[in-house]
Design a protein that fits this description.
The protein is α/β, with parallel strands linked by helices. It has a single domain (10-241), classed as Ribonuclease Z/Hydroxyacylglutathione hydrolase-like (Metallo-beta-lactamase, Chain A). The chain contains six helices and 15 strands. The strands form three sheets. The protein has a seven-stranded mixed beta sheet, with helices on one face. The chain has a six-stranded mixed beta sheet with strand order 9-10-11-12-13-14. Strand 11 and strand 12 (158-160) form a beta hairpin. Helix 4 packs parallel to helix 5 (205-213). The longest helix is centred in the middle third of the chain and has 11 residues, at 167-177. It is globular.
């Protein structure tokens, strides 16, 4: 495995939607979910977590920022994850999440960009991008969600989709902020009883998303560990096998990492 450098990307899957991304000397955590297995409150619903995180927050080392796609669902931000936010210098999320959580959370609207200073003095840009948490028109039911693109003049770009079910949105991200070098895509075909729809990308859509982005590598997350995920990593592997983008898939088990 190659050595991690400031020009490479290290991605580690903690479990569910939670991953650690090291880029440009900075460490990011996506959608922190650190509760143990069991029922988890999620708005007016209850979701069932099947597997605990591969690491605790104390084992992550110094974290520079959290990329929180949204705060209203327990499989993207749980009680332990909320506690974790207080230990991190800044969390980027939706404007609604910033209003609800308060101190330490910076709300961003789609296509809004902010800047973090890297250890070497250069800039890393965090650009919020749209996400549709279900079919078009479901925003009022699912609430606002965003994704993110991490980029800098001398860095590969990383797209973190958040809970997005729309290939149209993926195409918009590629159009406005491409070329995208690497992508962390939330899959799993999430569904809940009250909504007859997929709330995240399905396994069969992930190869198409890879082509739309023309990404060199994609790392699926949000595809294991919860009962409402209708698909899993095996189905993702099957969707890529034999395709023209099979070599771009980086499939991690919780606790595993890859250097891209």
């Amino acid at each position: 495995m190659p050595e991690h450098t400031d020009r490479s990307i290290r991605v580690e899957l903690i479990g569910g939607p939670t991953a650690v991304i090291d880029i440009g000397g900075l460490r990011f955590v996506t959608d922190p979910t650190f509760n143990p297995p069991g029922p988890q409150a999620s708005g007016t619903s209850v979701l069932t977590k099947l597997v605990g995180p591969s690491r605790s927050p104390d084992e992550l080392g110094s974290v520079d920022a959290v990329l929180l796609s949204h705060d209203q669902h327990g499989d993207n931000l749980d009680d332990a994850g909320r506690g974790f936010l207080a230990t991190v210098p800044v969390t980027f999320s939706t404007v609604a999440a910033a209003e609800r959580i308060g101190a330490g959370v910076t709300g961003l609207t789609p296509w809004q960009r902010t800047t973090l200073r890297r250890p070497d003095g250069r800039d890393l840009f965090v650009t919020a991008v749209p996400a549709v948490h279900g079919p078009d028109g479901m925003e009022a039911s699912s609430g606002p969600v965003i994704g993110f693109v991490l980029h800098g003049d001398d860095l590969p770009s990383v797209y973190v989709s958040g809970d997005n079910a729309s290939l149209r949105v993926v195409e918009e991200v590629a159009h406005h902020l491409g070329p995208i070098t690497f992508a962390v895509l939330f899959g799993g075909g999430a569904r809940v009883a009250r909504l007859d729809a997929f709330l995240t990308l399905t396994s069969d859509q992930l190869p198409t998303a890879t082509r739309l982005l023309d990404a060199a590598k994609i790392v699926p997350v949000h595809s294991e560990g919860w009962a409402h995920f209708t698909q899993d990593q095996a189905s993702i592997r099957a969707a890529f096998d034999g395709s023209d983008v099979a070599d771009r898939l980086v499939l991690l088990e919780p606790g595993e990492h890859a250097i891209l």
